[in-house]
Design goal:
This protein is mainly alpha-helical. Helix 1 packs antiparallel against helix 3 and helix 4 packs antiparallel against helix 5.
């Protein structure tokens, strides 16, 4: 296995574990998350959707299925979470969490772009690829 392929698998797995773990934590002990959401005016009915997104998209990244879509959805989720939950940039801890969410979103967007580029490369007929 090539180093770039191995790095892609390990990178996907590391990011996937972040979301799978968070989704499982929310599913098994939802109360603190519901309280946190309520403190920011986020409706509690969104928690099941967040759990499904984190676990489902996390598993998709882990196994390499629909990586572009899963990474894109999780990137959007991270951007929303940064703006909604960590917008108090005067608070050092919140500022750190805000930029950490942005950094994760950036990595996920890069992952989505790479997956799309790979998909396009695979869809180019062999004759066109050889002529280029």
């Amino acid at each position: 296995m090539s180093l770039p392929r191995l790095a892609s698998i390990v990178g996907r797995a590391l990011i996937a574990l972040l979301f799978i773990g968070a989704g499982i934590a929310k599913a098994t002990g939802p109360q603190p998350f519901l309280e946190h959401m309520a403190a920011f005016g986020v409706p509690s009915f969104l928690l099941p959707a967040v759990i499904v997104l984190e676990i489902g998209a996390g598993l998709a990244l882990l196994v390499g299925w629909r990586v572009r879509d899963a990474a894109g959805a999780l990137a959007g989720f991270c951007l929303i979470a940064a703006v909604v939950f960590h917008a108090d940039l005067a608070n050092k801890a919140e500022r750190t969490l805000f930029f950490k969410d942005l950094a994760i979103a950036g990595g996920l967007l890069a992952m989505a772009a790479a997956a799309e580029a790979a998909r396009r490369e695979r869809s180019v007929p062999a004759t066109k690829a050889q002529a280029a």
